Amino acid sequence: MSQVEKNPQAVWEALQAGNERFVTHREERPNQDSTRRVALRTGQSPRAVVLSCSDSRVPVELVFDVGLGDLFVIRTAGQIIDQAVLGSLEFAIEALDVDLVVVMGHESCGAVKATAAALEGDAIPSGFQRVLVEKVAPSILEARSQGMSGIVDYERQNVTETVNQLMTRVPQLRERLNDGRIGAVGLRYRLSDGCAETVVTYGVE
Ligand SMILES: [Zn+2]
To answer: Which of 68, 76, 92, 99 lies in disulfide reach of 72, CB 3.0 to 4.6 Å?
Structure first.
């Protein structure tokens, strides 16, 4: 992927092609040898930043069939956002000059399930886990306000809301989207078939 031309649409298409290879078991496993590893020791130039759920069933580099130095990956349960996430994202946009911001939720997300259950009256997790539910809850409430009630809809809405939050809170992302220097996509990875389905796109198609 590092060889593709620097533009959002090309990077988005390269990721889609990688996911297609993953889904159809035609992986090329690029950029995973020692030559690549050594070549990267003086710096990195990933073309996309990915904010995904920490879930062990969502291995980002495998899902997109990429290798060393290809993706700048940020992971939190439920792909929730805090200041460390925003700082990491800003770094990827400003210092690494990535072409694409990807937010990836997934099928059967425990954070979404726990939040939906808490909103139905189940106990809210204690300790630091409480923040996971607090940060996912607005997505589910928004989905409900739009008449949605299924867990798949909640998972998609949590992706949409996360992309919206990033665009609202990260001025560098907004500016670059406005002048076409960056794209942003929200995806929902399906455990069942390996497809990273598109939920929302900005600046790419
Ligand atoms: Zn999850």
So the answer is: 92
Task: Give the C-alpha separation, 161 to 142, whole Å.
Answer: 9
Q: Per the annotation, where are the binding residues for Zn(2+)? A: 53, 55, 106, 109
Mean pLDDT in residue range 175-184: 96
Q: Which superfamily is assigned to 8-202 in CATH?
A: Carbonic anhydrase (3.40.1050.10)
Spans of all domains in the chain: 8-202
Ligand 1 centroid vs 102 CA: distance in angstroms? 15
CA 134 / ligand 1 centre spacing (Å): 15
Question: Distance between CA atoms of 181 and 177, rounded to whole angstroms?
Answer: 6
Q: What is the largest CA-CA distance in the chain?
A: 54
As a whole number of angstroms, the distance between CA 145 and CA 73 comes to 32
- Give Cα separations from 94 to 25, 32, 63, 88 (angstroms): 35, 26, 25, 10
pLDDT in tens, 28-57: 999 999 999 999 999 999 999 999 999 999
